Amino acid sequence: MRAGLLHFAVFDRDAKDIASLAHIPLQMPVLTVSGDITFGIYVTQVIRASTLDAVQLL
Length: 58
What we know:
The chain is α+β, with helices and mostly antiparallel strands. It has a domain of 34 residues. The chain contains 3 helices and 2 strands; from the N terminus they run H-H-E-H-E. Strands 1-2 form a two-stranded parallel sheet. The longest helix has 11 residues. The protein starts with a helix and ends with a strand. The mean pLDDT is 82.
């Protein structure tokens, strides 16, 4: 169980690493798949903030 929970120990470092890369948009197309009732178009709107080409499948 301890080994299974160790990945939570690096969340602070992961957050810093991701924040340092957040200003660089992804250069690849991203496909977002969401449900009509769950998050709908909001998933694609969030992804479009970090990529140049986002395609939505609803």
